[in-house]
Amino acid sequence: MxxxxxxxxxxxxxxxxxxxxxxxVMPTAQEMELAISRLDELARPAVLAEIGGARxxxxxxxxxxxxxxxxxxxxxxxxxxxQSGAPMHPVVQIRVDELPQNLPxxxxxxxLTLWMDLHxxxxxxxxxxxxxxxxxxxxxxxxxxLGPGFRESPALPTFPVFWRETLxxxxxxxxxxxxxxxxxxxxxxxxxxxESRYLTxxxxxxxxxxxIKLGGWPAWIQGADWPADAEYVFQVDATYxxxxxxxxxxxxxxxxxxxxxxxxxxxx
Length: 268
Prior knowledge:
The protein is of the alpha+beta class. The protein contains four helices and 13 strands. The chain has helices at 29-42, 182-186, 191-194, 201-209; strands at residues 44-51, 65-66, 70-72, 89-95, 111-116, 125-127, 132-137, 144-146, 159-169, 212-215, 231-237, 251-256, 261-266. An eleven-stranded antiparallel sheet has the order 6-13-12-11-10-1-9-2-4-5-7, with helices on one face. Strands 3-8 form a two-stranded antiparallel ribbon. The longest helix has 14 residues, at 29-42. The protein is elongated and about 65 Å long.
């Protein structure tokens, strides 16, 4: 059950905001309206994926997959971690034209694959090739099977990936606080944010069962940790079904930089 302080207040009257503890001055109605308006402006579309849930077309690698059945370019090999030298495991393959809508970061990409060294300590703040590797392809033509096929991965199960829901997602507090009037940010009353129309029981239920999220905002656990000059693209959560462990119930966040890709990870 979602804690009461996280439940949506849709349809109810919110209490007046508490005063700024530093000054004792309450945010004005106009300042509160500005904060809520800015929250709506920053909400971004996110696409959530289910792994498994339908009969796989195991011979068709040109789809979105979890844990194997990947494609790659002719001549490519299974990547090895530059730090450990260990071979990486296929985690998720994203066929972009399967997505229900266009998302930032996927422009000009037909297929994206994420590989990881599942035993690496580099993933917490990693550059492409250290602990993880993102490869992208502008076309599906001439791609060939690469790495373990259906149910051949030694570490992860193989599931088809299905893009199930699109929703609007608000930023975390760390990514939002600097966007609102100071007295609103300092107020002890955060119901306008923590119980917004975006943070519903339905949202939390979906996030608990959909381990892949494209677009939206990084759902930080330990606080924001953006790479410099980076665009957030997607995240993958630890999943019992998919046998992916990231610390204690953590997530990995994939960012696109002007020249490459970077990963951040955190956990409880």
